[in-house]
């Protein structure tokens, strides 16, 4: 797996990232260990987690594996803070105090003395951006974090945050956002903002929550994540989404490969993308995702997928 610079920073990450959101909640420690070993053996380095994933259990599982299975020095360890959960309720708090407390919690969960990348998980409109960004500055100055970024930031928030960090010892290097053939909204404002300020884009949900694999074409399989979570997939059954899924399946058939390979290969070639983060729930899912690294889509297929999934642009985005 190639190692790519994250934005215009000196941080190098693998061209696919490994997400851990299901660890401790659908993926047990043994399966997680097998996934991490396979990812490491394939040259993967970027492992993404968050203090809120499974109420800290994802970080604790990952921390135990860094001690016993894969050397910490061979992992680009990324985590996020800003979201807390109590039962089914989600709380957003990106205040300086909350973020730094959650950073310390992440370090304890993981059993490490620093993170390679620490990101604000979601913007908090109740806290001044200056305060949130000051927490990132302190995290780097304290030695607990090497690089900082954001996640789920809109175009204007990305630009605002990047300007606040510009010229500092802790400039932003990344924005982790939802992006796939089914969800190209970031192309309107987020992608241009990241390009302007030198942020690398780390797409999550690159397979549209599994929809692009084609497994939901004839209903919801009993062993799928959609069934386990009782997920409402109605918004993926409109004619446009169905057309995209069918186009991916047709391309996969023509190339004698899988829809996963087609969807990830398309995404890796998009402007500004550094590393899609694949949340593999099982070793088999990771193996399928890794196969995408061996395939480059023919230009005509790339353009056909661009066309069928193109986001709607209106004023003023259409002006460029």
TrEMBL record:
Organism domain of life: Bacteria
User: Entry's Gene3D superfamilies?
Assistant: NADP-dependent oxidoreductase domain (3.20.20.100)
The record, for Pfam families, names: Aldo_ket_red
Q: Which residues form the NADP-dependent oxidoreductase domain?
A: 16-298
Family annotation (PANTHER family): NADH-SPECIFIC METHYLGLYOXAL REDUCTASE-RELATED, OXIDOREDUCTASE
Could you tell me what this protein is called? Answer: Aldo/keto reductase
Naturally occurring in which organism (per UniProt): Jatrophihabitans telluris
Source taxonomy: Bacteria, Bacillati, Actinomycetota, Actinomycetes, Jatrophihabitantales
């Amino acid at each position: 797996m190639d190692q790519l610079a994250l934005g215009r920073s000196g941080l190098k990450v693998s061209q696919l990232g490994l997400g851990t959101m299901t660890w401790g909640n659908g993926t047990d420690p043994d399966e997680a260990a097998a996934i991490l070993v396979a990812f490491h053996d394939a040259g993967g380095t970027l492992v993404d987690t968050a203090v809120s994933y499974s109420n800290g259990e994802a970080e604790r599982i990952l921390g135990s594996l860094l001690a016993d299975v894969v050397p910490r020095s061979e992992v680009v360890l990324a985590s996020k803070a800003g979201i807390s959960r109590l039962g089914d309720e989600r709380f957003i708090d990106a205040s300086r105090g909350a973020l730094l407390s959650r950073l310390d919690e992440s370090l304890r969960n993981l059993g490490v003395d620093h993170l390679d990348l620490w990101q604000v998980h979601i913007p908090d409109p109740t806290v001044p951006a200056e305060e949130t960004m000051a927490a990132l500055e302190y995290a780097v100055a304290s030695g607990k974090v090497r690089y900082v970024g954001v996640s789920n930031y809109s175009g204007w928030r990305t630009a605002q945050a990047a300007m606040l960090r510009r010229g500092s010892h802790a400039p932003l290097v990344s924005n982790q956002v939802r992006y796939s053939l089914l969800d190209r909204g970031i192309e309107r404002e987020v992608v241009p903002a990241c390009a302007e300020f030198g942020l690398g884009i780390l797409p999550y949900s690159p397979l549209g929550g599994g929809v692009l694999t084609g497994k939901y074409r004839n209903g919801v399989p009993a062993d799928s994540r959609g069934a386990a979570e009782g997920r409402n997939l109605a918004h993926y059954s409109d004619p446009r989404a169905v057309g995209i899924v069918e186009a991916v399946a047709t391309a996969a058939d023509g190339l004698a490969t899988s829809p996963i390979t087609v969807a990830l290969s398309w995404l890796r070639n998009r402007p500004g993308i550094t590393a899609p983060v694949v949340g593999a729930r099982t070793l088999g899912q990771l193996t399928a995702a890794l196969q995408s690294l061996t395939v480059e889509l023919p230009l005509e297929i790339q353009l056909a997928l661009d066309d069928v999934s193109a986001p709607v642009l209106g004023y003023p985005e259409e002006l460029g």
